[in-house]
Automatic annotation (TrEMBL):
The active site is at C31 (nucleophile), C34 (nucleophile). PROSITE patterns: THIOREDOXIN_1, THIOREDOXIN_2. Participates in various redox reactions through the reversible oxidation of its active center dithiol to a disulfide and catalyzes dithiol-disulfide exchange reactions. This is Thioredoxin. Signal peptide: none annotated. The keyword S-adenosyl-L-methionine does not apply. Keywords: Disulfide bond, Electron transport, Redox-active center, Transport. The keyword Metal-binding does not apply. Belongs to the thioredoxin family.
Length: 122
């Protein structure tokens, strides 16, 4: 059973909006660093079944990659409650990915949005 999920442009918005936390790995089969990062991403998915670990093949989903402004791969994006909270190119080592997951879990997106909205008022 695979714990990562391949998603298409058609599934992208529903995936990030219908799940609390979503990590998205933008990759391509010809990309060496992408292939090297894949086992790390899969291990994270096994360790954190409460988080959706989605993969976007930038070759198959070129329009989605362009819309997401992907300039180099692998690129990892993280969404919490539909909001982008992390966006970085480059393969993360396992410890860094785990640290990122813990930070996203702890991040209070509702307070951040409220603070941003309060700032917009003044």
């Amino acid at each position: 059973m695979t714990t990562t999920r391949d998603i298409t442009a058609a599934e992208f918005n529903d995936t990030i909006n219908d799940n609390e936390i979503v990590l998205v790995d933008f990759w391509a089969s010809w990309c060496g660093p992408c292939r090297a990062f894949a086992p790390t991403f899969a291990q994270s998915a096994e360790k954190h079944p409460d988080i959706v670990h989605a993969k976007v093949d930038t070759e198959a989903e070129q329009q989605l990659a362009a819309a997401a402004d992907i300039r180099s791969i692998p690129t990892l994006m993280a969404f919490k409650k539909g909001k982008l909270v992390f966006n970085q190119a480059g393969a993360l080592p396992p410890a860094a990915l785990e640290d990122l997951v813990q930070q996203i879990k702890a991040f209070d997106i509702d307070a951040a949005i409220a603070a941003q909205n309060d700032g917009d008022q003044g």
